[in-house]
Amino acid sequence: MSMEINLQRVDRVYYPGEKVHGYVVVDSPKGTLQHSGITMEVEGSIGLQLSAKAVGLFDAFYANVKPIRIMHFNIDVQKGTKLAQGKTELPFEFRIAPLDDMRLFETYHGVYINITYNLNCEMARSLLAKNMKAQLEFVVHMPSKEEPVEKRVPFKVTPESLENVKRTSLTAIPRFRLSGHLDSSVCNIMKPFTGEIVVEECEAVIKSIELQLIRVETCGGLEGVAREATEIQSIQVADGDVQRNLRIPLYMIFPRLFTCPTTAANTFKIEFEVNIVVQMQDGYTVTENFPIKLIRC
Question: Cα–chain-centroid distance for residue 165?
Fold first, then answer.
């Protein structure tokens, strides 16, 4: 015997206000199946978690961190009855809508912040039989209200422009000059991130050039704020000692679920940054950081 949840949309992606249609599929290959009712719980929640180094700083906040419920309702899929042998499909439907005084946020799987929407189905059976359960996550996308406006970001990187280097240490750093641009710091999450980098000059031998996507998650309240930056993905855009003055394209697809439109709420923020990392064979690493804003349109 088994029970599973199927949705009509294969990608399981829905927008606020849309209706979700699906089936609870019960398979009883050996005979009829008696049950006392099949119910489904629809829940959307925000989970906040502080990093280990921040727990001691914000004990009061940490003690109060509980999942924030933003969507919830129950569905009676079927009253208690007897199901025939074989597969039985039981339809259900509901509309994507938040609880009163709450608002929906896009599905997001992070390190310290998680926004998830789940279907939890349970079949109640007799005292001597174990209840059957099934779970399925669906995805909510939130279209941004603002229109995409490309904001081209040119950059030039030299030893003198580095922020975390003392002036007295500049003579020990190999001479280099990098230039290029990001096509836009406001990025449509449905389209690739693009730009280019040019190594105009570099005394040291270059090992690689990488493009990193960083998530910046902020949790907090009146007690304080904990801000953590972690890497989502890193893409190598060049390998070896690249030719000087060669235009090297930057190209990256934003990963599903691990990114979402830039979000700010009362107790959390989700932001994103891009790092361009140039590694040299003598152990020097040059990193240039660019905050970006993600929107969905």
Answer: 33
- Comparing CA positions, the residue from 257, 30, 22, 35 lying closest to residue 135 is 22
Other Cβ atoms closer than 10 A to 2: 11
Phi (first) and psi of residue 59, to 5 degrees: -60, -40
Q: What is the DSSP string of 15-37?
A: -TTPEEEEEEEEEETTS-EEEEE
Half-sphere exposure of 207 (CA within 13 A, CB side): 10
pLDDT tens digits, residue range 11-50?
A: 999 999 999 999 999 999 989 999 999 999 999 999 988 7
Distance CA 50, CA 217 (A): 10
Q: Which two tokens stand for residue 134?
A: 């099934």
Q: Are 273 and 291 in contact (CB under 8 A)?
A: yes
By CB neighbour count within 10 A (0-12 exposed, 13-18 middle, 19+ buried), where does 132 fall? middle
How far is 126 from 138, CA to CA, in rounded Å? Answer: 30
Q: Whole-model pTM? A: 0.89
- The residue length of the chain stands at 297
Q: Which amino acid is at 133?
A: K
Q: For residue 178, what are its two tokens?
A: 């990098």
Asked if 208 and 239 count as a contact pair (C-beta separation under 8 A), the reply is yes
User: Residue 271 forms beta bridges with which residues?
Assistant: 216
